[in-house]
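User: Could you go from structure to sequence for me? I need the amino acid at each position, not a summary. Structure tokens:
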């Protein structure tokens, strides 16, 4: 089989998952692959990636997500099944990203099957980042294809690596023009600017905060980030001796209004609970008086 590796330097698991999932023709007949996802259901994939991302210590140009594609020869399509592809994908993850989190879906286009894998760079709830050099990757390819030959000898056309066998044109993964454009739009292999990094960090905190105060409290806990004020109001952040307005980082007034609405909603709910408790207490006092 052919394996292609891409890296994302922007943390956008929802965008990548949407792309991977949208390529599935029939969800009913095409089960997804879950690897180290505590609750193996689609709605828990992105939250698991987000939580796991919090354990990372990000540096400049850090890899935030890995996107890998395993493709099979069109000549083996009649001998392939979802079970076989999942077995080989799981073996690959076992050999490479044993303790990382991964999600995958199978696509079928241009007369060949391939599976897309979205993988965390770090191990589950650990700071450890998995590094695989070329030597180790070649060893993995050999071990994987040896496993493939033993388990599924009928997939002979998808053996392209071991024994120095050359890749034939019909065996390699040839991305369509549309897929190529999608990958570019998704942001793979693009530079991870400081603004993108800060935008992702702020949006993550906004999504996890229940109020504006909670959001600013989370920002103050971030190492290397300070909040700067203008006319007595928070106007942006200071990072690496440079100031960035919230608006310049793509954080609109609507985002803060949404936080204010969350805050109001929490206050209203608390007032309702307090009113209910007070009402119950008054009823209890009335019963005591009657007795």
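Assistant: Here is the amino acid at each position, in order:
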């Amino acid at each position: 089989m052919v394996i292609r590796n891409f890296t994302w330097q922007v943390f956008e698991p929802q965008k990548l998952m949407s792309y991977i999932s949208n390529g599935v023709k029939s969800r009913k007949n095409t089960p997804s692959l879950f690897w180290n996802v505590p609750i193996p259901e689609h709605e828990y994939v992105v939250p698991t990636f987000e939580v796991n991302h919090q354990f990372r210590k990000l540096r400049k140009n850090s890899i935030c997500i890995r996107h890998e594609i395993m493709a099979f020869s069109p000549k083996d399509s009649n001998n392939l099944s979802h079970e076989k592809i999942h077995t080989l994908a799981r073996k690959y993850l076992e050999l490479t990203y044993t303790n990382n989190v991964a999600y995958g879906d199978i696509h079928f286009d241009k007369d060949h099957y391939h599976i897309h894998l979205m993988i965390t760079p770090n191990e589950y709830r650990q700071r450890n980042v998995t590094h695989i050099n070329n030597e180790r990757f070649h060893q993995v390819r050999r071990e994987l294809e040896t496993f493939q030959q033993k388990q599924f000898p009928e997939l002979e056309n998808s053996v392209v690596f071991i024994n120095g066998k050359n890749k034939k044109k019909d065996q390699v993964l040839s991305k369509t023009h549309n897929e190529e454009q999608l990958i570019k739009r998704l942001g793979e292999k693009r530079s991870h600017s400081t603004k993108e990094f800060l935008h992702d960090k702020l949006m993550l905190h906004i999504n996890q905060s229940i109020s504006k105060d909670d959001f600013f409290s989370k920002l103050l806990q971030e190492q290397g980030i300070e909040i700067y004020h203008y006319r007595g109001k928070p106007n942006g952040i200071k990072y690496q001796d440079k100031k960035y307005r919230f608006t310049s980082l793509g954080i609109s007034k609507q985002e803060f209004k949404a936080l204010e609405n969350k805050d109001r909603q929490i206050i209203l709910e608390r007032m309702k609970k307090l009113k209910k408790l007070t009402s119950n207490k008054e009823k209890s006092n009335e019963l005591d008086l009657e007795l």
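One structural detail worth keeping in mind: Residues 2-186 form a domain with the BirA Bifunctional Protein; domain 2 fold (CATH 3.30.930.30).
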